[in-house]
Amino acid sequence: MAKAVSGKAEQTALERRRETALSSSLLARVFHQPSLLYFKAVADCLSVRDAARGLHVAASAVSRQVVQLEGALNMSLFNRDGHRLTLTPAGEILCRHIGRVTAPLEAAISELDMLRGLKTGSVRIASVESVGLSFLPSLLADFGRRYPRLHLDVSITSAAEVIARLIDERADVGFGFLTTPTPRIEQGVRRDVRLGVLMRPDHPLASVPKLTLAACLDHPLAIGKKELSIREIIEPFLLRATYTLPPFLEVDSIRILVELALQGHHASIMTPIGAHLDIAERDLVFRPLEDPGLPTNRFGLMVKAGGGLHFAPAVFYEHAKQHFGALELPGAIL
């Protein structure tokens, strides 16, 4: 009899273990409840109160659902320091994957709204700074006039981060420079742009007949940090031009490179993209570098290869292709 009772107790314990963290039966129930929705809302704003306000529910309901989810996973999803919340590593992982799960549903709603004629939707755009300083504002303004109900979310970041966001599906459309081609990225528009020196018309280098990096090294230069795609291209040629590199002024901003050139003391190594207005006004001149073998910087309008754009991003992508297809990029090799 005792053995039978003991066996039954062990079976009960086993069933309880099956119903604890990460058991398929429990998670199937939890993931079909509001827990994930409430967790994502809190993760987005790192505030239970703000999440509850956005969801139009009581804060206690949000807290209860988050605690239930943490119990099911047997993991803490938030670090709690008084009223301040931060995501734990487990919370960051779950938040990232929830975004991938919900994005297609949000896109489906957007397309259904389009079908009903409401013309709503969202496009996530990632762009390098030089494009943001030059051609992107006019593109955005023109698109906004044609599709006033579409929401545009624009992030200015590095060329490498533009690629990473497209691949990770954190951005729908990207504008940037692709120094190394990858099969994971599709380019709707591609232009090879010359690298050169931006300076004032009265700068000594402006009158040099055939400008090379070696000639530039005798003058104060401003160059981009390694976060900028230009540096990756120019670095081997800088090392080749001299045994000992002179001191440079290094910045991680195209706009600052342009402003430094305007000051007159420095010449900035860059493409003319981002400075086309100053060049047009003749406040600055751009001279391409003539070093043998110096590659171009490849500008591209990009999306994730094989990803399949939803309605709103697809409309923007086609509009951008037409816009850049007819645009004359300064320094571009035709």
Q: Topology of this protein?
A:
Blueprint: H1 2-18, H2 24-30, H3 35-45, H4 48-55, H5 59-73, E1 78-81, E2 84-87, H6 89-115, E3 121-127, H7 129-133, H8 136-146, E4 150-156, H9 159-167, E5 173-177, E6 185-193, E7 196-199, H10 213-216, E8 221-224, H11 229-241, E9 249-251, H12 254-263, E10 267-270, H13 276-280, E11 285-288, E12 297-304, H14 311-325, E13 332-333
Parallel strand pairs: 3-4, 3-5, 8-9, 8-10
Antiparallel strand pairs: 1-2, 5-12, 6-12, 6-13, 7-10, 7-11
Which descriptors apply to this entry?
single chain; alpha/beta; 47% helix; elongated; disordered N terminus
Short characterization:
The chain has 334 residues and is of the alpha/beta class. The strands form three sheets. It has a six-stranded mixed β-sheet with strand order 4-3-5-12-6-13, sandwiched between helices.
Q: How many strands in all? A: 13
Characterize the biggest β-sheet.
6 strands, mixed
| Strand order in space, largest sheet | 4-3-5-12-6-13
Task: Name the shape in a single word.
Answer: elongated
> Number of helix segments?
14
Helix content, binned percent? 40-55%
Q: What is the mean pLDDT?
A: 83
Which ranges are low-confidence, i.e. pLDDT below 50, for 5 or more consecutive residues? 1-7, 13-21
Helix and strand sequence = HHHHHEEHEHHEHEEEHEHEHEHEEHE
